[in-house]
Design goal:
By secondary structure, the protein is mostly helical. It contains four helices and no strands. Helix content is 60%, strand content 0%. Helix 1 (5-17) packs antiparallel against helix 2 (35-49) and helix 1 packs across helix 4 (64-76).
Length: 78
């Protein structure tokens, strides 16, 4: 993992959604995300970070800030 979690997550969102202005309250699905793109998000995050993120977690943690906290919580147990 080369980038900090926040940068890695933001970079992944930008790559998938094409959105440039992502903040803590940005909602993945309101920015154009859908089920297929959520699957891609899960795949990319797990390839890059190996944290075992699930599709259900992405659906339940729709906002950038929520996903970032989820990832941070995962890394504290490693």
């Amino acid at each position: 993992m080369n980038l900090p979690l926040s940068d890695e997550l933001r970079k992944t969102w930008v790559a998938i959604l094409g959105a440039k202005d992502i903040d803590e309250d940005s909602d993945f699905f309101r920015l154009g995300g859908n089920h297929r793109l959520a699957v891609d998000l899960v795949r990319r995050l797990n390839e890059k970070l190996s944290l075992g993120v699930t599709l259900r977690e992405v659906a339940e943690h729709r906002r950038y800030g929520q996903q970032l906290e989820l990832l941070r919580a995962r890394t504290s147990f490693k």
